[in-house]
Sequence to fold (546 residues):
Amino acid sequence: MRTVSLIDVASYMPRQVVDNEFFLNGDDEHVHAMFRGVKRRHHVSADESAVFMIDQASRRLAEKLNLNLARDVDVLITNVTCPDMPFTGCGATVAHALGCRPKWILDMHNGGCVSFIQMISHAQSLMTSHNLKSALLCNVQNSAGRIFGSVENRVRKQARIPGDGCGVGYFVANSESPVMSVVHRNFGEYADDMAIVRDDGSQWWEPSTHAGYVDFSETKVADIMARANRIVPEVIFEACRNAELPVNEIDTLITNQPNRIFLRNWREALQTPREKHVQTFERHGNLFGAALPICIEEALNTGQLKNRSHLVLGGFSHAGDFAASAVIQWRPA
Amino acid sequence: MQTFQLAIDNLVGVRRMENCSKEEMTGLAMEMTHAVYPHDQIYGRYCTIQSHIDCPPEKAFEYLSDVYSLQEWTFSMRDFSPTHDPGLVTAIDRIGGETTIYTRTIANREAMTVDYHCAWDQGEKLWMIYLMRVVPAELTLNKPGCVVLWTNCRHPFYDENPYPEKAPTSRKVWVGDMWPFFYAGHQIELENLKHILEYRHANSLPMTVGGAS
Fold:
């Protein structure tokens, strides 16, 4: 495999900030432990499509790095929680909006909350097999505004957890901030424990007056928790081992941020001090796949992510059907 | 009845369906469920271990309730001999050099519990209590054999020897110094017990060797 480096990240956060009053499902003290801890989150508005968010974040990134978008994007990969259109991904529209001419466009849909890591692998594979230089990886979480903001859904206990945002990362085939290891694990047996449902039982493509929402199998809650407690530390340990990085030398840990209990448990399992585990759960909620690039930007902005340090990414998707981790040596030179 | 129940539900820290919703209960469960636990949090005040042993519970009970079996499956208790006090035996606990250890075994065949009441250096106050229970695996695990449960409670004497004058003068170590290793030490001894019982049962050998060494 060619060595690829994460050069930088940028984000776009939707204009509308929603506080807990919006949800009409109890104050924070009285909601279920699993759904506590978010003070506010962003919700996309109707005019903030996935394409628009990626366009905004990518232009910021291009400006930061002085990129020529027409020339400097060989691979474009997107992962959008709630696609602008069924059937088609938004990658082609994004390329057109940005004026990119990528050799490869991939719209992915199975990486969930750790799709950023999955995209790193795909970018690295494509860059290796096709001798390409650069990749733009785009993560959009937009299910908070599109799904949980609806009048019907905002009373649901889980409605306050998701928050929207877009994070993009730029990768180049060089050794500036090399990806040292990537670990993926698929657990197909857990795939059906999360579903998009409607209260009338209809499928998403069927006509209905009911709003769809994301739900987890209630009988599986304890099991989902146990598997998340297990598989996320496991993949992170393995990625660190492959990178020959002792776990106690993780300088910055960034995971997906589904709830504060998982954040606590993963940090404890890795014995990573709280200040090294960068997360924005309180003000952004669960950013799904966008959490990784958005929190990398947060870590850079706050100065937590320093040159010559190790950045470790990890997490799991959906109800545990996919887990991944990556170790990045941040600007070693 | 109702008055009693009300009183119970008003007790601080009592959580039952009557005063705590199922939702609240799940929330608490999540809060309390961590991915990992520090060793001290699990084994700091109590040390409970357990193992499945492929040997009928009656045979395991028979072996455990014979105090002289301790010279086989423990790591360091040797040279057993009876005392003039019936039921009280002495041995040398070689982990403490020339330390004499006193043991009285209190077994209950019906409950299949075997409690070893022990102490280093003196036999008047037997404060080191090893609580063991044999459970039929047929009932609890739907498989042959038994499960052996073993609990120790951290008596304050583990932290400070109350009879220093009775210790051998040259001895530097105190049994309680090893509390942080109790999980490991006892686990190893439980493995010994498992291997011995499984071997004797599988080969239809007598379970106990009988009597002092």
Chain A has two domains: 5-175, 180-187+218-330. The two ends of chain A are 21 Å apart (CA to CA). Chain A touches chain B at residues 32-34, 221-222, 225-226, 229-230, 232-233, 261, 264-266, 268-269 (CB under 8 Å). Residues 17 and 42 of chain A are 4 Å apart (CA to CA).
